[in-house]
């Protein structure tokens, strides 16, 4: 493993995925109709959100929930993950050519951007006070391994 990765904190590792989520969601809402570009961007965003959420839940939220101070902030973040999952499911069930598809994609993009903004500007600061420095680096390594494992995994195969 490159030295740089070993020194990342969980927050730095998460921000790398956040940048991809922002880029994919912004590009997705610029598409129209049932095109290859829309289908590919949707798959990229869906895979990114899924791998990120699985790994983040396991290696940031669950450790934080072990402390009383982390409970409330974690519950709020998990509810936003649930909202994103529901919007992704709606998009998956809606025809790409349906005029309502873009409205749902825009709502998803708004929720993603809101969640990332909140995490980076509030949640991370609060979580940073709860987690020890060595824990932040250890969680980053575990997060990256889990994230990579789930990045292109079929979500339906996990049931």
TrEMBL record:
Q: What is this protein called?
A: Hemerythrin-like domain-containing protein
Q: Cross-referenced Gene3D superfamilies, in alphabetical order?
A: nmb1532 protein domain like (1.20.120.520)
Superkingdom in the source lineage: Bacteria
Domain annotation Hemerythrin-like: ranges: 9-126
One Pfam family matching this protein:
Hemerythrin
Can you name the source organism?
Acinetobacter vivianii
Q: What is the lineage of its organism?
A: Bacteria, Pseudomonadati, Pseudomonadota, Gammaproteobacteria, Moraxellales
Q: Please give the InterPro entries that the UniProt record associates with this protein.
A: Hemerythrin-like (IPR012312)
């Amino acid at each position: 493993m490159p030295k740089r990765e070993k020194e990342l904190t969980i927050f730095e590792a998460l921000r790398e995925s956040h940048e991809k989520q922002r880029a994919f969601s912004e590009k997705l809402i610029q598409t129209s109709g049932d095109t290859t570009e829309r289908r590919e961007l949707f798959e990229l965003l869906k895979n990114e959100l899924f791998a990120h959420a699985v790994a983040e839940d396991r290696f940031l939220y669950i450790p934080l929930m072990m402390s009383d101070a982390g409970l409330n902030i974690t519950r709020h973040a998990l509810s936003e993950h649930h909202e994103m999952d529901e919007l992704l499911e709606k998009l998956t069930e809606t025809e790409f050519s349906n005029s309502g598809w873009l409205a749902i994609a825009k709502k998803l993009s708004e929720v993603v951007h809101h969640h990332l903004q909140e995490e980076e500007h509030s949640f991370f600061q609060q979580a940073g006070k709860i987690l020890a420095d060595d824990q932040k680096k250890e969680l980053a390594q575990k997060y990256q391994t889990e994230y990579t494992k789930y990045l292109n995994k079929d979500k339906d195969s996990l049931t």
